[in-house]
Amino acid sequence: MVQKYQSPVRIYKYPFELVMAAYEKRFPTCPQIPVFLGSEVLRESRSPDGAIHVVERSCRLRVEAPRLLRKIAGVEHVVFVQRNVLNWRERTLLIEAHNETFASRVVVNENCSYTVHPENEEWTCFEQSASLDIRSFFGFESALEKIAMKQYTANVKRGKEVIEHYLNELISQGTSHIPRWTPAPVREEDARSQAGPRDAGSLQADRPGSTPGPAPETVLTEGDKLDADYIQRYLGHLTPVQESCLIRLRHWLQETHKGKIPKDEHILRFLRARDFHLDKAREMLCQSLSWRKQHQVDLLLQTWQPPALLEEFYAGGWHYQDIDGRPLYILRLGHMDTKGLMKAVGEETLLKHVLSVNEEGQKRCEGNTKQFGRPISSWTCLVDLEGLNMRHLWRPGVKALLRMIEVVEDNYPETLGRLLIVRAPRVFPVLWTLISPFINENTRQKFLIYSGSNYQGPGGLVDYLDKEVIPDFLGGECVCNVPEGGLVPKSLYLMEEEQEHTDQLRQWRETYQSASVLRGAPHEVAVEILEGESVITWDFDILRGDVVFSLYHSKQMPQSGRQEPGARAGGQLMDKGWVLGVDYSRVEAPLVCREGESIQGSHVTRWPGIYLLQWQMHSPPGNAACSLPGVEDVLTALHSPGPKCKLLYYYEVLASEDFRGSMSSLESCTSGFSQLSATTSSSSGQSHSSPLVSR
């Protein structure tokens, strides 16, 4: 496998000529780089006018590797060949290097360039890239790869220090300026010879695309430079390289993009999302612009009118700004019936509403930038989770949420400045485990999570919001007009024909399994848990009849479970001879589920083994049956005319390491989540299930 390295652009705030003088002091030896044992010139040439200087060197580097590896390889140093093309006219130095030692086993290629900064001709840019391809190395390929990349990274860092050392040495010796190269007067008899074929180095230096430095499109005129006041007023602090990346990307869009050119603030978000890697930011931005054109997102705020149902039951809205001037959006997710909204308006309508919120957020950022006189490019979101329970783990709802996260992260990067999550209940870690892997790491670092009343007082909301804007439902004095949400009446749900049109029923049927429960013949699912503290989650809808749901644990797999893993519709997995309390134990209290109800729950396992999810018909209290039916019950069920109960179900196991990893990421947040973590951990073996109706 080829390993690649690309360094960030390094800036020396010195003229190119002075940096070249410092660079030459590294040869033939350099005490500041201990692994560099020395070099000798193999070939050297100059163009007739002296503008092009080509040097080819053989460089010896000491091998910093374990003694055993050096002994097996039979070498104490390796040889690299370096070719430098210095172009004084263009003020560029191009460096190519490759290894000679073990060239048949290991291929190392390196390219470096020193160029003039595109925005300040008195500064010098340095870029470096390398690739490593280890084809075979005495069975030590993996070890060599790690050693090589570690050593190379260390040498890159050391290289910057060495150049700065020699620059300071030159200045201390009185050399702070070196005149630029100018062509010598050409005699008439030499003119013809100089008009002939140029030195190979000159051709290499002038060849389009031969330098990893700024491309031809990045040569900027004075009018293209960003005004310092404009940067400070609308964009915020930018380094010279960041400013250069912004100008280059805008230039490229102006030359190639057909349509509206995004504002600098918009382009800058994509650059920041890709750490100012120009090619990656360009690709991300182009995909987003195509998406916006395809879905006519630029017209969304003018054309989108949310349905009245959304305005009433979608518990979110804008509310002043935070302490830094960012627009503040409040979402009372715990009070929102996500399943009801999806069944009433459909996933696409919800997605369009979320997009309109993001479009409005960008518009409000521009307004606050003008109002406060400083750049504001992101907003703050305050999420209240009071009322969050297992109902919110309805799988189509979770999948829709993940899709919305993906769309927003791809097309609205770096727009979320801070996410404040308050009143997080103990079920929140389960939801977080499901969604956090799909959230960008940079975005996750902006999350602040509070359980209970930890958001009150120092370290809480007052650190991020003025007291005057803290909502009344969180103990503040400000009246908040965000809708309170609530359950969506079933009468407002889309008809099945409309849901089919939106492909929702098809998607939901792909997610869930169906089962029939007969009297005396429960439906059971066997789940094998290999380690404790895993989390079993379930989600099921009762379509017909009333059932009793239970969860059991056994150390052994039922015989029928071995023959046919998973569940058998209308069948029973438990061995008929098993005795409750001896062969298996109940780990969840029986839960009566009525027709039309939707149940979501979870269980943090204490022990490895087999866990059995069981649904059986509900009997009147006077005729309560034991968990294992008798022969007569089974015979009755088999001869009954049809199923008495029907359900759709889904279950999932969150591995112990994933759940603990999620908890660790939460505990590392600047929040009071440690108390929530302790509560959740101490509830092992207890259910998070809820009998709440989530139709």
From TrEMBL:
<dbReference type="InterPro" id="IPR009038">
    <property type="entry name" value="GOLD_dom"/>
</dbReference>
<dbReference type="InterPro" id="IPR011074">
    <property type="entry name" value="CRAL/TRIO_N_dom"/>
</dbReference>
<dbReference type="InterPro" id="IPR051064">
    <property type="entry name" value="SEC14/CRAL-TRIO_domain"/>
</dbReference>
<dbReference type="Pfam" id="PF03765">
    <property type="entry name" value="CRAL_TRIO_N"/>
</dbReference>
<dbReference type="Pfam" id="PF00650">
    <property type="entry name" value="CRAL_TRIO"/>
</dbReference>
<dbReference type="InterPro" id="IPR036865">
    <property type="entry name" value="CRAL-TRIO_dom_sf"/>
</dbReference>
<feature type="domain" description="PRELI/MSF1">
    <location>
        <begin position="3"/>
        <end position="175"/>
    </location>
</feature>
<dbReference type="InterPro" id="IPR001251">
    <property type="entry name" value="CRAL-TRIO_dom"/>
</dbReference>
<dbReference type="InterPro" id="IPR006797">
    <property type="entry name" value="PRELI/MSF1_dom"/>
</dbReference>
<protein>
    <submittedName>
        <fullName>SEC14 like lipid binding 5</fullName>
    </submittedName>
</protein>
<feature type="domain" description="GOLD">
    <location>
        <begin position="509"/>
        <end position="653"/>
    </location>
</feature>
<feature type="domain" description="CRAL-TRIO">
    <location>
        <begin position="306"/>
        <end position="482"/>
    </location>
</feature>
<dbReference type="InterPro" id="IPR036273">
    <property type="entry name" value="CRAL/TRIO_N_dom_sf"/>
</dbReference>
<dbReference type="GO" id="GO:0005737">
    <property type="term" value="C:cytoplasm"/>
</dbReference>
<dbReference type="Pfam" id="PF04707">
    <property type="entry name" value="PRELI"/>
</dbReference>
<dbReference type="InterPro" id="IPR036598">
    <property type="entry name" value="GOLD_dom_sf"/>
</dbReference>
<feature type="region of interest" description="Disordered">
    <location>
        <begin position="178"/>
        <end position="220"/>
    </location>
</feature>
